[in-house]
Design a protein that fits this description.
Oligomer: single chain
Order of helices and strands: HEHEHHEEEEHEHEHHHE
Number of helices: 9
Distance between the termini: 39 Å
Mean pLDDT: 89
CATH architecture: 3-Layer(aba) Sandwich
Number of strands: 9
Shape: globular
Number of domains: 1
Helix content: 40-55%
Strand content: 15-25%
CATH class: Alpha Beta
Largest sheet: 6 strands, mixed
Strand order of the largest sheet: 2-1-3-7-8-9
Length: 223
């Protein structure tokens, strides 16, 4: 590489870093359920994913675990506070799942409709990420209804049963991509393109579903 080529590449890199620095950090608010309902000593957790993102300087996080509906709704209610969800606009729900549901225990489910009813319109411009098997393996109309009621800019999740290690890697990639642009109509489309183009075919292997709320326009905020 000649000096001129190196200079252009270097300037390009600096420009990209400067552009990234202008994008507001998007924190993650994680609520995690029990992974082995019959084993109280089970230590499985998504915390290492969040720790890595924070230690590498991508974003901060808040983490809470729960085992009951009242605990889940207590922490969801905290996130609904604008002071919290403006700083942590990515709601990460890490649970076992079923089509249209997350599991609180092996018997107790919490549906997308219940979640939408509880959150109401407090999610405008936010991301709701389901780190759970099969939750988004439902028809598009049901997802659109969820997005319309909550005002979320997008919901992300899986359409099938997923491997722990593969899904952890995929979650990490998606959270990294979500830091790459603004959470507005223009930015979320760029984020989606980044996910399907920059990380190989992992999203296809795991049947990752990324549904953008095209019923609302989310304007770019300028300072």
């Amino acid at each position: 590489m000649c000096i001129n080529e190196w200079t252009v590449t270097f300037k390009d890199t600096i420009h990209k870093k400067q552009m990234t620095a202008k994008i507001k950090e998007k924190g993650i608010y994680c609520i995690e359920g029990l992974w082995d309902h019959g084993n109280i000593q089970d230590q499985s957790t998504v915390l290492p994913i969040l720790d890595l993102l924070e230690k590498r300087g991508y974003c901060n996080y808040l983490f809470r675990d729960c085992a009951t509906k009242s605990e889940l709704e207590f922490f969801l209610d905290k996130w609904k506070n604008r002071i919290i969800n403006e700083k942590y606009p990515i709601l990460y729900l890490a649970f076992h799942g079923d089509p249209g549901y997350i599991f609180l225990t092996h018997k107790d489910k919490y549906s997308l409709e219940e979640l939408a009813d509880f959150l109401g319109d407090k999610c405008t411009g936010k991301i709701i990420y389901f780190g759970s098997c099969s939750t988004l393996n439902i028809n598009k109309r049901r997802i659109n209804s969820f997005l319309k009621k909550t005002g979320a800019i997008a919901t992300i999740g899986y359409k099938r049963e997923i491997d722990w290690i593969q899904s952890a890697a995929c979650d990490l990639f998606v959270f990294e991509a979500l830091q790459s642009d603004k959470l507005d109509t223009k930015g979320i489309k760029k984020i989606y393109k980044k996910i399907i183009s920059d990380y190989g075919n992992l999203h296809k292997i795991l049947d990752l579903r990324f549904v953008i709320n095209d019923q609302l326009h989310f304007s770019r905020q300028r300072k």
